[in-house]
TrEMBL record:
InterPro entries: RecX_HTH_1st (IPR053926), RecX_HTH_2nd (IPR053924), RecX_HTH_3rd (IPR053925), Regulatory_RecX (IPR003783), WH-like_DNA-bd_sf (IPR036388)
Annotated protein name in UniProt: Regulatory protein RecX
Domain RecX second three-helical: 37-78
Compartments it resides in: Cytoplasm
Top-level division of the source organism's lineage: Bacteria
GO BP, one annotated term: regulation of DNA repair
Principal subcellular localisation of the protein: cytoplasm
Length: 143
C-alpha cells in the first residue's frame, strides 16, 4: 500500500460513498495515531521525486498542491531542499540526456537541455549556468 495525503484518502473514501462526517472522524483518528501524516508524506514525496525525476522545488510545489498538502506544510518541506542537491540533480539530468545528443549542434543541444530543465521547474539562471558548464565539459572531452 502506498502512502497518501489526507486529501487523497478523503477523495478515495468519498468515491466509496463513505459519509463525509464518518470519513472526517476516521481520518482524524488516523492522524492521532500517526497513520496519516501530511508532513511526513510531503517529505517522502519530495525526496522520492527529486531523486527519481530530478524535479526542482517549483515543480515539487505543484505536485504537493495536487496531492492536497497545505501550502504552509509544502513551504516548510521545500525549504529543507538543499540548493546544492538541486543543482546536482540538474547536472545528472543533463549528463544523462547529453548521451543522446552527441551529433547535435551545441546551440540546439543547449536549447533543448535548458527547455528540459525548465519543464522540471529549474530557474532560468540555474538551467543556463549548468547547461553551459556541462556542455563545455562535454565538448572539451570530444576534442
Amino acid at each position: 500500500m502506498k502512502a497518501r495525503s489526507r486529501r487523497e484518502l478523503e477523495d478515495r473514501l468519498a468515491k466509496r460513498n463513505v459519509p463525509q462526517e464518518v470519513a472526517a472522524r476516521l481520518l482524524d483518528r488516523f492522524e492521532e495515531v500517526g497513520l496519516v501524516d501530511d508532513e511526513a508524506f510531503a517529505r517522502a514525496w519530495v525526496d522520492s521525486r527529486q531523486r527519481t525525476r530530478g524535479l526542482a522545488r517549483p515543480a515539487l510545489a505543484v505536485e504537493l498542491r495536487r496531492k492536497g498538502i497545505a501550502e504552509e506544510t509544502a513551504r516548510e518541506v521545500l525549504a529543507e531542499v538543499d540548493p546544492a542537491d538541486e543543482e546536482e540533480a540538474a547536472r545528472l539530468l543533463i549528463r544523462k540526456k547529453l548521451r543522446s545528443m552527441r551529433g547535435l549542434d551545441e546551440q540546439v543541444a543547449a536549447r533543448r537541455l535548458v527547455g528540459m530543465l525548465a519543464r522540471k521547474g529549474y530557474s532560468a539562471g540555474l538551467a543556463y549556468g549548468v547547461v553551459r558548464q556541462e556542455l563545455g565539459a562535454e565538448w572539451a572531452r570530444d576534442d
